[in-house]
């Protein structure tokens, strides 16, 4: 499976494509950063992000897109820009019918390093080790994008299996309730018939 990981942002938007193989094997395909000038208006900056993401989707043809979820930031303006860039990415992927999954930073850190509290340096080190990279992806947004793709490749199969198990469990509960209702209805009918017979 090929995944495009995106660390959204207006000033820097990290992009990373990773192929997943058997087990937990992963292979790097491409990594980069989209930059938009801070002095441009918001619409132009979002268009710049969208155009580059579209180019990556056309060139690398991922089967899924993993985007970092905006969790919490002290700077509201930065958080809004990040969320808007993530929305543009999701829209571009949705237009191609690609599944888009949002992962929190702690989920990504836990998947790649084993700790949801790892810092950026630890994430970058593990990304390099897992993908066999000799050169550190720069800036950190690029490494984060690769980490997102790896996280998705490792977490999504488990999430799908869990969702399927929950759906099966819900169906069993529905079937059980239906049987109980049918049994109660049949018991009520039998009791009524007995009472009618007794009166006669």
UniProtKB/TrEMBL annotation:
NCBIfam families: PRK00039.2-1, ruvC. Mg(2+) 2 binds at residue 68. It comes from the Bacteria. Keywords: Cytoplasm, DNA damage, DNA recombination, DNA repair, DNA-binding, Endonuclease, Hydrolase, Magnesium, Metal-binding, Nuclease. The active site is at residues 7, 68, 141. The gene is ruvC. It catalyses: Endonucleolytic cleavage at a junction such as a reciprocal single-stranded crossover between two homologous DNA duplexes (Holliday junction). This is Crossover junction endodeoxyribonuclease RuvC. PROSITE patterns: RUVC (PS01321). It comes from Amycolatopsis halotolerans. It is an enzyme of class 3 (hydrolase). Mg(2+) 1 binds at residues 7, 141. The keyword Membrane does not apply. Its cofactor is Mg(2+). Its main location: cytoplasm. Its EC number is 3.1.21.10. The RuvA-RuvB-RuvC complex processes Holliday junction (HJ) DNA during genetic recombination and DNA repair. Endonuclease that resolves HJ intermediates. Cleaves cruciform DNA by making single-stranded nicks across the HJ at symmetrical positions within the homologous arms, yielding a 5'-phosphate and a 3'-hydroxyl group; requires a central core of homology in the junction. The consensus cleavage sequence is 5'-(A/T)TT(C/G)-3'. Cleavage occurs on the 3'-side of the TT dinucleotide at the point of strand exchange. Homodimer which binds Holliday junction (HJ) DNA. The HJ becomes 2-fold symmetrical on binding to RuvC with unstacked arms; it has a different conformation from HJ DNA in complex with RuvA. In the full resolvosome a probable DNA-RuvA(4)-RuvB(12)-RuvC(2) complex forms which resolves the HJ. Binds 2 Mg(2+) ion per subunit. It is found in: Cytoplasm. Belongs to the RuvC family.
